[in-house]
Amino acid sequence: MNPIEIRNLNKVFKTKQHALHALNDVSLSIQKGEMVAIMGTSGSGKTTLLHILGCIDHPSGGSYRLNDIPVEQQSPKALARIRNRDLGFVMQDFALVDHYSVQKNVLLPLNYMKEPQLRKERAARLPALLEKLHIGQKRHEKVMNLSGGQKQRVAIARALINDPGIILADEPTGALDQKTSQEIIELLKSINQEGKTIIIVTHDPNIAAYCDRIVRIEDGRMIEAGELIP
Asked: Where does the signal peptide begin and end (predicted)?
């Protein structure tokens, strides 16, 4: 069973004047442990696809199974549980709370867990996780005082704290310089090599080159699904 299976996916944004087809009949399978880049020009539909994969947005048609769960049939409450349990998110703008400490930012996803013992176990992973990401010494520092690269490491730690199987990254190096971008993509690659499935939206071919496969989208249509590199 692949963790992600989408078939004939469509997304239409309707206005009073017309309908915008953001995704047209997209089908895609992603294997467990795969690292996939989604590429396309601005407005191609790649971020819309990522939002649907992340259970943030609903498709207008087609099917999406996440870990064999039919996503389009789930209630908003169930989708929130799926997002918190199965998915980790890394954004271009980091999406951190600047006046919170590193520790408080990373632990935020645990606030939505209902199992106290599991929450305690996950929180206990924090020191080792921060050390692994080379920000252990910044644990009590406010995020506003960190560099861009350090902020993205905090965002990655937050994505990993619940130990999800899938990491979704939307232009994770878009706000970083070249050297720091390479450090971040190498970090994501090492996380992938530990067994995490990682999907990255990027416009940078140097970032995409670290992935097992490149999926290309233009005008809402998949033009190339790529081949998995052995």
From this structure: none
Which two three-digit tokens encode residue 101?
């400490």
Give the integer Cα–Cα distance in Å for 141 and 158.
15
The residue range of the domain holding 42 is 33-58+86-224
Q: How many structural domains does the chain have?
A: 1
AA letter at 177 = D
- Are the C-beta atoms of 229 and 212 separated by less than 8 Å? yes
- Name the DSSP letter for residue 110: G
Beta carbons of 139 and 127 less than 8 angstroms apart: yes
Tokens (6 digits) for 159: 């994505």
Q: Are 224 and 216 in contact (CB under 8 A)?
A: yes
- SS3 state of residue 78: helix
- Residue holding tokens 């013992």? 117
pTM, full prediction:
0.93
User: What are the tens digits of pLDDT across the range 28-74?
Assistant: 999 999 999 999 988 899 999 999 999 999 999 999 999 999 998 99
Q: What is the pLDDT of residues 167-183, one digit of tens each?
A: 999 999 999 999 999 99
Q: Is residue 63 part of a domain?
A: no
**7 assigned to some structural domain:** no
CA atoms within 13 A on the CB side of 115: 10
